[in-house]
Amino acid sequence: xxxxxxxxxxxxxxxxxxxxxxxxxxxxxxxxxxxxxxxxxxxxxxxxxxxxxxxxxxxxxxxxxxxxxxxxxxxxxxxxxxxxxxxxxxxxxxxxxxxxxxxxxxxxxxxxxxxxxxxxxxxxxxxxxxxxxxxxxxxxxxxxxxxxxxxxxxxxxxxxxxxxxxxxxxxxxxxxxxxxxxxxxxxxxxxxxxxxxxxxxxxxxxxxxxxxxxxxxxxxxxxxxxxxxxxxxxxxxxxxxxxxxxxxxxxxxxxxxxxxxxxxxxxxxxxxxxxxxxxxxxxxxxxxxxxxxxxxxxxxxxxxxxxxxxxxxxxxxxxxxxxxxxxxxxxxxxxxxxxxxxxxxxxxxxxxxxxxxxxxxxxxxxxxxxx
Length: 371
Description:
With 371 residues, the chain is α/β, with parallel strands linked by helices. Helix content is 38%, strand content 19%. It has helices at residues 56-71, 79-89, 97-118, 122-125, 147-159, 174-188, 204-214, 231-240, 254-262, 279-291, 302-311, 353-359, and strands at 4-14, 30-39, 44-48, 133-137, 164-168, 193-197, 221-223, 245-247, 268-269, 295-296, 317-320, 333-335, 338-340, 360-367. The chain is globular and about 65 Å long.
């Protein structure tokens, strides 16, 4: 039986490809903790997580000082047990973003190692439900862009074969959001899906008002209308509108998703593999959503979510926001508005370790006593 002998922790700061602004924040930098685990047989697995501009040093410190040392000597095949034990070891800081992001970097590395050992790509190890998935774009829908730019982006994505795109809402008055969405809908026609995202900007009263407007435009979903910790308000909104309510990127535990599903507060689950704490809990959320008849349309991290949504049966969309190009040898396989997961064993991400080494702002190694 192999044992974990070494944990390498690096962090790379990646600038966004375009200016990204929504109703409450700007995406200024992707701080990217990268964890590589090596066992006594020489097998390796690499995983990662991210922030959108702050907190990366805290994630790295939690990995370096607390979690990585607990891995040494463990059987890397016991992924679920390791995840649970690490969660319990950080009980005083859970549930929370920093802990979840640190757990995710480790958990994805262990899944990468296990898939490589088995000679399986992640999409098959996770269930192998489908060989491709429809892609929608977010990159051209940021809130600061003018209406003409939004329309041009929608037409461009439609011509490339995309079946939908997402647009940020949350302009000061509902009429501004309506004018922008009306222009896009007029340009692309009825068959092109329009998703909307408020990034938790609204009160319940304003969310009800905006939802009434969205109903007139055939909107595919209304994402994060209010702060994610207000489940009751989302349940009230969901009962009042025909527009599907999408949540999940700002939720960090199985129990939070359970509360939304049980109370009928969400029609679409956008579980984020980094923010939920890794592949192990991500698959549990997807199964829980399936039991409620709810679709999974995950947030961000398209390179990692691609094999996961192809692994499960209740997924329909992958969000297109390219971000890893500077530290990978190639991007995802995208053809005609559909993404195809890699058949290479592991997560399917072709890391460029030389580029990672050159760009790392942190590079530490934790060794086991017997290594």
